[in-house]
Structures are given as C-alpha cells and as structure tokens.
Amino acid sequence: MKPKGLLTPQRKAILDVICASSDHPTAAEIMDRLRERGRQFAYGTVYNSLKYLTETGQIQELRVGDACRYDARTEHHHHIQCTVCGRVDEVFAPIPGEWAEEVARETGYLLDQDQILLKGVCASCRARTS
Amino acid sequence: MKPKGLLTPQRKAILDVICASSDHPTAAEIMDRLRERGRQFAYGTVYNSLKYLTETGQIQELRVGDACRYDARTEHHHHIQCTVCGRVDEVFAPIPGEWAEEVARETGYLLDQDQILLKGVCASCRARTS
DNA sequence: TTTATAATTAGACTTATTCTAATTAATAAT
DNA sequence: ATTATTAATTAGAATAAGTCTAATTATAAA
C-alpha cells in the first residue's frame, strides 16, 4: 500500500486560490479567499494542504515577517519586502555567480538560489515619504 | 522635559548578553541567558529593551524564521540561515552594485543593503547529509 | 519637594501555527 | 462486495512569539 499524496478537493481549492492571487497571500488570507468562494476548511487542513503543495513543488513557501506567504510562481526567483508597507514583490534578476561563489567561500554554505529575501522601500512608499 | 532614552540596568544587562553571544539569540534565548546570570525581567521589559537597543543602533534585529534574532555586530552585513539546522551566520561579502541596480530597476524599490537574508545548507549539515 | 514623564512589572491578550483525537474517505486485498 | 488499512479532514486545544494594559517605581527638571 503506497502513500496516496492526493490532490483532494480541499487541496485543489487552496491551490486555485493561490494561483488566482498575485500578492503572496498568507494562510489567513487564503482562508478569507476560500470563504469568499463559499469554501471553508479547518485550520489543520489548510496548513496540511499548504505543506503538501509546497513539498510537491506546486507552490513556493516564503517566510516573511511573522507569517508564511505562498506563491504560485515556482520558477527560480527571489523576493523583496517593503520595510514601510510590508508588501512583497518578485525579483527575477539572478544572483551574480561571482557573488554566490564569494558567499559560499566565506561561509561554507551551499547557497539556495531561490530563497533570498531582500528588503527595501517600494516605489509608492518612497513617493509618499519624500 | 526631554525623553530620557536611558541605558537602564535592565537594558545594560540585555545588551551585555547579546554582546557575549555570537549565535544571534532570540528573545527567549536572551531571557534564558539572563536567568543563568541571575537576572530575570518581565517579557515587556525585554521586548522594550530590544526595541530601544535596535532603535539606538546598539544592536541589529533580524527576523529569521518565526522569531526575531539579535546581533551585536552593527557593521553592514547580511545573514544566511541553514535550511537544515536553522543556524544563522554572518555574510560580509558586499552585494555587487550592478546587481543592486538591476534589482532596483526591475522592482522600483530602494534597496536596503543591510537586511538581506540568504538560505543554504551549512558546512556541517552538508557533511552529515552526504 | 513637587511634578511630569520614562521604565518596569505581571499578566492578559493576539496572532500564527502545530498538535491531538475522532471521524470520514479512499484504496487494496480478500 | 466486504473488510482492513491508511490517508485526509475536522474541531478544537495547545504552543510560541510578541504586544498591550494598568499599576507601580524610578528619574530628572522646575
């Protein structure tokens, strides 16, 4: 008897919500959006589903601030968060190989190229502040 | 009457613990180490002190995983966390200016050069895994 | 000294997440 | 088809990090 690893109706509904979102929703936001669509699952189901979808590579989990956020874009990319408003955006500019090597040499780590979180101030917050 | 902004005995004790630590302790770990030294303060005091020390530039706060960690090294540098064991290390290799510009151009963000969190697998976890 | 404000305290509260025990669903072997 | 086995879901309790509040203590300026 093999493990099932099914895309159950619950998991499918959660994946759909994430695919329809471009703002990296948190688990709580995903639950809100499910409710708007007339679906409501137990906390445990949502977290279990997010774990399953992440582990099977269907979504990407990124921890930002005090919550995990989820992204349907699974291509290699990084993220940047605004230190003023908290929004999170994608960064597709690849890390320069030279710098990655320098970091690896300095730290002894094997770099994970997809999990970099940058910080900064987004365009609209800069406009508002200055 | 001006605000005081004092380095009270509590704040001093907390700063001492952080200066004596090289492993980026969390608030909970700081409280443990205070207790080992025979000091114990209210949660509120510890968090208030960490905020004060961060705002006055005496320590650096970095959010990693589900908790904030504190670092007595305030020079410009980044951090890298092991995705296996969770340890956090310093990265002093500066971001290549060219890449920073590319990210700024792509995202419209004004990059904060000191707040980059990288992920990877540390040397000892790699040795253990392979 | 009195007065105003800052800092500390204990503990309640919030938020994100994990865990648990019971139930339901689905598959595999009979 | 029926039963055994395991997976997934559920409701809700438990945990962990951090914030908030009201009362108290400490400090400094007038």
Features of this protein?
three-stranded mixed beta sheet, alpha+beta, Dna Ligase, domain 1, 130 residues, DNA-binding, homodimer, two-stranded antiparallel ribbon, Arc Repressor Mutant, subunit A, 5 helices
Could you give a short description of this structure?
The structure is a homodimer of 130-residue chains. With 130 residues, chain A is an alpha+beta fold.
Describe this structure in words.
Two copies of one chain form a homodimer. Chain A is of the alpha+beta class and 130 residues long. Chain A has two domains: 9-71, Arc Repressor Mutant, subunit A, CATH 1.10.10.10; 78-129, Dna Ligase, domain 1. The first copy, chain A, is built from five helices and five strands, in the order αααββββαβα. In chain A, a hairpin with a 5-residue loop joins strand 3 (78-82) and strand 4. The A-B interface holds A 63, 65-66, 80, 82-83, 89-93, 95-96, 98-99, 102-104, 106-112, 115-123, 126 and B 63, 65-66, 80, 82-83, 89-93, 95-96, 98-99, 102-104, 106-112, 115-123, 126. Strand 5 (110-121) of chain A pairs antiparallel with strand 5 of chain B. Chain B binds a DNA duplex (30 and 30 nucleotides) through residues 1-6, 8, 10-11, 26-28, 41-45, 47-49, 52, 66-68.
What is the overall pLDDT average of chain A?
Answer: 93
Instruction: Give a quick account of the main beta sheet of chain A: strands, pairing sense, barrel closure.
Output: 3 strands, mixed
Shape of chain A: flat
Number of helices of chain A: 5
Helix content of chain A: 40-55%
- Kindly estimate the percentage of residues of chain A that lie in beta strands according to DSSP: 15-25%
- Taken in chain order, the helices and strands of chain A follow as HHHEEEEHEH
The residue ranges of chain A in which pLDDT falls below 50 over 5 or more consecutive positions are none
> What is the multimeric organization of the chains shown?
homodimer
Please tell me the CATH architecture of the largest domain in chain A by its name. Answer: Orthogonal Bundle
